[in-house]
Design a protein that fits this description.
The protein is of the alpha/beta class. The chain folds into 2 domains: about 140 residues, Urease, subunit C, domain 1 (Roll); about 325 residues, Metal-dependent hydrolases (TIM Barrel, Alpha-Beta Barrel), CATH 3.20.20.140. Helix content is about 30%, strand content about 20%. The chain has 15 helices and 16 strands. The strands form 2 sheets. Strands 1, 2, 3, 4, 5, 14, 15 and 16 form an 8-stranded mixed beta sheet that branches. An 8-stranded mixed beta sheet has the order 6-7-8-9-10-11-12-13. The protein is globular, with a radius of gyration of 24 Å. Pfam families: Amidohydro_3. This is Amidohydrolase family protein. Keywords: Signal.
């Protein structure tokens, strides 16, 4: 009997060992130029150690643990993985094909929508961005019939089929021209709808502390809120609302974590006057956590943004306005906001963000070059790298988990052929949670298939 038990224990241990995640190992990347992604200068001949999917140490003089898998990065650059500050990766393969596009909904719900179940990790743009060094992305839905688009997520671009790092991370709302159009044709209507919705949510919360409903259960998730899940308590729910409500029950409950400060509200606004309205929200709802995306005219209200402490995920290098709300746009927008003390990072809203989030790296490099032009405001090299790594993570409240090579952060790392902010450099190895990722895409397959074919085996397009 004892022998049989020992055999079972041994077999179980073998199965557990086989089932252990690929990240359960120690990797030491040595000899490269290491940039931590926190704004500091690059470190020559540095070493990065990742154990069990987390960064253990990074810098000069870091000892290589016994038994570690050693990767020689001499002559290469090593950085944190790029975080797409604003994207819609995984929500669309072909925009014009309804069956391949889950960015927005014209259904009855808005704020209650959670885009996490719709994200497709096998979408072609996910693999393309991974091959370009993007390891995680802030993914937001698009608006349908409401200024509220729903709840966005942080995803990774790994090839394991499990993309969602943090679901229901933030609530996304459109102001400005698009919000005005959605809400009836004017900014006044959009701002009134936003405040009405937040007040409805505050009323639903009933002034209870800690996000608890009257029955003591959490109301963070509308699927778990008793006023929604239990039909017998609908009267309790209705008692907490006025008769002139505009939100569905699910939508109102979904906004409760926002007004209580437990979920970030990400607001798209470009014009200076709209940005001031977002700043004013903080005074009316002091517990609310806010972040702004876009902000083409942010430099004109930079001191106010800095004083508010609201982080900005800005579009880079916008100078020729494509709308009336961006008449004050300038290439120096991000540099000027940064100089004024605004917590700013780079996003790609309205910039083919379904596919081309990796452009953020190019923009960061261009901002470094801009800093060398007389009269222009750009970023230092360290600031520019941080703007596409740690800064967007911090804007989402996740700086302690992702975005840099500081100890304890997730082992998201890229080995580059050269300076990562140089457009000619390429990602040669990508690690997510300490696991090396494939860099093959549909495009690389087509390239490899056709670039060496003899012309004689190809069909002629025309014959004379």
């Amino acid at each position: 009997m004892i022998r049989r038990s020992l055999q079972l224990l041994a077999a179980t241990a073998a199965v557990v060992a086989l089932a252990a995640p690929a990240s359960a190992q120690t990797i030491a990347i040595t000899g490269g130029t290491v940039a931590l992604g926190d704004g500091s200068a690059p470190i020559q001949s540095g070493t990065v150690v990742i154990r069990d999917g987390r960064v253990v140490a990074a810098g000069q003089g870091v000892a290589v643990p016994a038994g570690a898998q050693v990767v020689n990065a001499a002559g290469k650059w090593v950085t944190p993985g790029i975080i797409a500050g604003f994207s819609r990766l995984g929500l669309a393969d072909v925009d014009a094909v309804a069956g391949a596009n889950d960015q927005s909904s014209d259904g009855p719900f808005s704020a209650a929508l959670d885009i996490a179940p719709a994200i497709n990790p096998n979408a072609a743009p996910v693999a393309i961005n991974r091959a370009e060094g993007v390891t995680r992305a802030i993914v937001a839905p698009s608006t349908g019939k409401s200024i509220f688009a729903g709840q966005g997520a942080l995803i990774d671009t790994g090839a394991d089929g499990q993309p969602v790092t943090r679901g229901r991370l933030f609530q996304y709302v459109e102001l400005g021209e698009q919000g005005a159009e959605t809400s009836g044709g004017s900014r006044a209507s959009a701002h009134a709808l936003l405040r009405n919705a937040l007040r409805e949510a505050r009323q639903v919360a009933g002034g209870t502390a800690g996000g608890r409903s009257e029955s003591g259960r959490s109301s963070e998730d509308p699927r778990e809120d008793p006023v929604v899940a239990n039909p017998n308590e609908n009267r309790t729910y209705e008692a907490r609302r006025n008769q002139d409500v505009l939100l569905t029950r699910f939508d109102a409950v979904a906004l409760v974590p926002v007004v209580q400060g437990r979920q970030l509200l990400l607001v798209h606004a470009e014009r200076a006057s709209d940005l001031r309205q977002v700043i004013a929200l903080k005074r009316e709802f002091p517990r609310m956590r806010l972040a702004i995306v876009g902000a083409d005219e942010g430099w004109t209200v930079a001191s106010e943004l800095a004083a508010s402490g609201i982080p900005v995920i800005a579009s880079a290098l916008t100078s020729l306005p494509n709308s009336f709300e961006s008449l004050g746009s300038t290439h120096s927008n991000i540099g000027r906001m940064r100089a004024a003390g605004v917590k700013v990072s780079i996003g790609t809203i309205n910039d083919d963000e379904q596919r081309m989030a990796f452009r953020a790296r190019w923009y960061a490099g261009n901002l470094v070059g801009l800093s060398r032009l007389p009269g222009a405001s750009g970023l230092s090299w360290g600031e520019a790298l941080a703007a596409i790594t740690s800064a967007p993570a911090e804007a989402m409240g996740l700086g302690g988990d992702v975005g840099s090579l500081r100890p304890g952060r997730r082992g998201d790392l890229v080995i580059w052929s050269g300076d990562p902010l140089d457009h000619l450099s390429a990602a040669e190895a990508v690690y997510i949670d300490g696991v090396q990722q494939p860099l093959e895409t549909r495009q690389t397959k087509l390239r490899d298939r056709y670039r060496t074919l003899d012309r004689g085996v190809l069909p002629e397009a025309y014959r004379r």
